[in-house]
């Protein structure tokens, strides 16, 4: 019996070892606390930890592909990537290909942010003509009419962290930031320099989607994501980096 159990375990490990790695999309526009990049490779962060835990629990190696944000969907369509996380179907209205979406896993809140000394509450549509900090390639539906009319102008930076650094340096009076990055940065600033959210621009549930391919363990991935969400593991990872859970409305 002991030999039989050992043999079965050996077969199981061989099968797992033979499975290809799970290839994750990592947009280079992400910054902490989502992901930290060192020499072009992800090393820590909320999304990195979630993806690494997912692959480990599915029983396959994780492989991270750092790409420009504009290349991610093309890489999915060409079979170069298996899983993309931190996405919403409304962001991809013209999505082509065969994919299966997870349940909502994370809550994203986009804020209009300013330095201290500015009004603590504003309406974007009442702002005078000016530039505001934005991330290159990101879309901001609630602000797009103001960009189109010329009332507001985008000043793009490569990632969210750089946008807030330019705000701190006084390059502009307002910037757009997600709640996580704002919380992460404020943890590291003295009280008199902390940035403040002055308007909620958009709130949205986001999740992951998986390329529906026979070589990808799609159902194991989706079941594992569900278990990670229901067990509180995902909220624990968020809390580790931001000091709070995902902050549902």
CATH architecture level-2 label of the largest domain = 3-Layer(aba) Sandwich
Main sheet record:
5 strands, antiparallel
* Total number of helices: 8
**Assigned CATH superfamily of the largest domain:** Periplasmic binding protein-like II
Number of domains: 2
> For the residues shown, what is the average pLDDT?
88
Q: Indicate the radius of gyration in whole angstroms.
A: 20 Å
What is the name of the CATH class of the largest domain? Alpha Beta
Portion of residues within helices: 25-40%
Number of DSSP strand runs: 11
CATH topology category name of the largest domain: D-Maltodextrin-Binding Protein, domain 2
Low-confidence stretches: 1-16
**Helix/strand/pairing category:** alpha+beta
Strand content: 25-35%
The outline comes out as globular
Amino- and carboxy-terminal Cα gap: 54 Å
Order of helices and strands: HEEEHEHEEEEHEHEHEHH
Overview of the structural elements:
The structure is a single chain. The protein is α+β, with helices and mostly antiparallel strands. The chain has two domains: 20-107 and 204-242, Periplasmic binding protein-like II (D-Maltodextrin-Binding Protein, domain 2); 108-203, Periplasmic binding protein-like II (D-Maltodextrin-Binding Protein, domain 2). 34% of the residues lie in helices and 28% in strands. It has helices at residues 2-18, 46-58, 69-77, 144-149, 160-168, 179-186, 218-230, 233-242, and strands spanning 22-27, 36-38, 41-44, 62-67, 83-87, 99-101, 106-114, 130-135, 152-157, 174-178, 196-211. Strands 5, 6, 7, 10 and 11 form a five-stranded antiparallel beta sheet that branches. A two-stranded parallel ribbon has the order 1-4. Strand 2 (36-38) and strand 3 form a beta hairpin. The protein is globular. It starts with a helix and ends in a 7-residue tail after the last helix. The model is unreliable at 1-16 (pLDDT under 50).
């Amino acid at each position: 019996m002991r030999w039989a159990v050992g043999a079965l375990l050996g077969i199981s490990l061989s099968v797992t070892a033979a499975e290809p790695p799970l290839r994750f999309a990592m947009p280079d526009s992400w910054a902490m606390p989502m992901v930290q990049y060192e020499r072009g490779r992800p090393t820590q962060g909320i999304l990195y930890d979630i993806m690494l835990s997912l692959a480990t629990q599915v029983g396959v190696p994780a492989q991270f592909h750092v790409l420009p944000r504009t290349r991610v969907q093309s890489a999915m369509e060409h079979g170069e990537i298996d899983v993309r996380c931190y996405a919403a179907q409304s962001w991809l209205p013209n999505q082509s290909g065969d994919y299966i979406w997870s349940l909502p896993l994370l809550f994203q809140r986009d804020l209009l942010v300013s330095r201290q000394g500015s009004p603590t509450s504003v309406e974007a549509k009442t702002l005078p003509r000016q530039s505001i900090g934005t991330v290159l390639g990101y879309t901001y539906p609630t602000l797009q009419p103001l960009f189109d009319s010329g009332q507001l102008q985008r000043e793009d930076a490569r990632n969210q962290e750089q946008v807030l650094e330019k705000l701190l340096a006084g390059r502009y009076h307002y910037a757009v930031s997600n709640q996580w990055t704002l919380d992460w940065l404020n943890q590291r600033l003295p009280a008199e320099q902390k940035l403040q959210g002055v308007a909620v621009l958009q709130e949205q549930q986001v999740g992951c989607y998986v390329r529906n391919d026979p070589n990808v363990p799609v159902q194991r991935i989706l079941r594992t994501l569900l278990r990670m969400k229901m067990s509180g593991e995902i909220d624990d990872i968020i809390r580790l980096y931001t000091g709070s859970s995902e902050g549902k409305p």
